[in-house]
Specification:
Layout lengths: L3 E4 L9 H14 L8 H5 L5 H10 L7 H20 L10 H10 L3 E5 L4 H10 L8 E3 L12 H13 L10 E5 L2 H9 L4 E4 L5 H5 L4 E3 L7 H8 L6
Parallel strand pairs: 1-2, 1-4, 2-3, 4-5, 5-6
Helix pairs in contact: 1-4, 3-4, 4-6
Length: 235
């Protein structure tokens, strides 16, 4: 049965792709490297900054030490949080508070699984007064491979079970909400069904790989999804 909803962050909770792209381009220029059109969408969407920057620099024959990579990530994170601080209103996707209310009303657990840094996630959630909505946050600070690998989702299941031992949560009892191919692949590798929300890619493209697809987060029919989970399986 459905017991937990696992949200991606960038592209599902907050519409910040343009900000990230601008800051990564800026970082490349500051490191005397030329941004390439379409490169970020191909390499970085759905992946952590660590994985993204490693591949961007490697494609230019620049191998980053751990110390230099940490320095670049720290610079970008500081710039990201400053960008958000300058915004009068954060670009949170419409329908998020309502769906969180419905999930809580259904007594389901809620977590975030993201490659974003915890400081970025908590800064956003605190500002929009949603910090108490998520029981677990699995962030890019954790030492696990970036999506499309399943490690982050499996860790979320483990942490929820530690927090709620009576839950006996299995990956198949969860539903992931993702907007990128990397994220959808990560969840499905972990054995978690996925709703693809068409915030980043067109509906028809996500429909090919997600279990369910919606145009907007507000279109997710939670009761209908729960009915599917609650169907008895054949012997």
């Amino acid at each position: 049965m459905l017991k937990a909803i696992l949200f991606d962050f960038n592209g599902v909770i907050i519409n910040d792709e343009a900000i990230h792209n601008r800051l990564i381009d800026q970082l490349l220029i500051e490191e005397n490297l030329r941004p390439k059109r379409g490169e970020l969408r191909q390499i970085c969407l759905g992946r952590s900054d660590r994985a993204c920057l490693q591949d961007l620099f490697a494609s230019r024959s620049r191998i980053l030490s751990d110390a230099n990579l940490d320095r670049l990530i720290s610079r970008k994170s500081a710039a990201y949080q400053q960008e958000l601080a300058n915004l009068e209103k954060l670009p949170i996707y419409a329908g998020l508070p309502d769906i969180l209310f419905n999930i809580h009303a259904a007594q389901l657990k809620i977590a975030i699984v993201t490659g974003a840094l915890r400081s970025e996630v908590t800064a956003v959630l605190e500002r929009v007064e949603l910090s108490d909505e998520f029981s677990v946050i699995i962030s890019g600070d954790e030492p696990f491979p970036s999506k499309p690998e399943p490690d982050g989702y499996l860790l979320a299941v483990k942490r929820l079970n530690e927090l709620y031992p009576e839950l006996n949560l299995m990956p198949a009892d969860c539903l992931a909400i993702e907007d990128t191919f990397a994220g959808i692949t990560a969840a499905k590798k972990a054995g978690i069904p996925v709703v693809g929300v068409a915030n980043t890619y067109p509906f028809h493209m996500l429909q090919r790989c997600a279990n369910w697809t919606v145009d907007y987060l507000s279109d997710l029919e939670l009761d209908r999804v729960r009915q599917i989970y609650d169907r008895p399986t054949a012997a």
